[in-house]
Specification:
The chain has a domain of 38 residues. The chain is 0% helix and 0% strand.
Length: 96
């Protein structure tokens, strides 16, 4: 029956085994660092001390007319018979 002795050749079957080798491709991601200096107005309170010298002179006590003969007694009306607000001895004070 098979009188021909020629073999039949089928197309080849391929069995593929994949291997992967890495190749480095540089990808550049630029990063910019910004050093920012912000100016902020901040009040600085400076206290300047001021010193003043105040001389308080009580004045000379005056002798009242009713006690003129009594030695060592003085009136309480302040300097030159004046007074501040009716209080004796406060005639020339520089404060209130």
């Amino acid at each position: 029956m098979y009188g021909c002795g020629c073999p039949i050749v089928c197309p080849p079957q391929y069995c593929v085994r994949d291997f992967y080798t890495q190749r480095v491709i540089p990808v550049i991601h630029p990063v910019v660092n910004v050093n920012r200096q912000n100016i902020v107005n901040v009040p600085q309170h400076i206290y300047q001390p001021v010193s003043t010298n105040v001389v308080v002179d009580q004045g000379y006590p005056t002798v009242t007319a009713g006690t003129a003969g009594t030695a060592g007694t003085a009136g309480t009306t302040g300097f030159a018979g004046g007074g501040f607000g009716g209080f004796g001895g406060f005639g020339n004070r520089l404060f209130f």
